[in-house]
Write a sequence for this structure.
């Protein structure tokens, strides 16, 4: 939720169905990434497109997560107040407006969607894994707690 507030400018309720579904997709993808088919897909995407396997579900889940972030970006575009940026997305949109005349600018809606997704996935994954390992270490070494 900290990452959500920085990137999206909003926190989700821990009982929010959309948020829980999003977390489920991410968790499922973390498991699917371990399969040999998914690893082969990284090296031979053209060949693996024609073969069944868990990599197909991973791609579907990524598309759903991408749509989630793209929808948030589109909502921000509609409600943007350039004088009062709420979060990373608003700051990026402001920079896009400044770069409007520059045809070589990397500040595009596609770049914004990808960057937002990258920040969200990286922040969500690393934070949850760090907390899990911290809890495991505290469980194994209870004397640290005291």
């Amino acid at each position: 939720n900290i990452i959500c507030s920085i990137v999206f400018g909003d926190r989700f309720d821990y009982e929010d169905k959309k948020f829980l579904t999003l977390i489920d997709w991410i968790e499922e993808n973390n498991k699917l990434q371990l399969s040999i088919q998914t690893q082969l897909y990284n090296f031979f995407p053209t060949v693996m497109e024609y073969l069944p396997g868990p990599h197909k579900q991973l791609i579907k889940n990524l598309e759903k997560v991408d749509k989630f972030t793209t929808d948030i970006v589109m909502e921000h575009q509609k409600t943007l107040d350039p004088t009062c940026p709420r979060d990373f997305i608003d700051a990026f949109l402001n920079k896009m407006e400044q770069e409007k005349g520059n045809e070589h600018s990397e500040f595009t809606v596609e770049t914004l969607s990808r960057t937002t997704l990258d920040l969200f996935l990286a922040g969500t994954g690393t934070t949850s894994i760090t907390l899990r390992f911290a809890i495991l270490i505290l469980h194994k070494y209870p004397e640290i707690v005291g």
User: Anything to note?
Assistant: The mean pLDDT is 88.
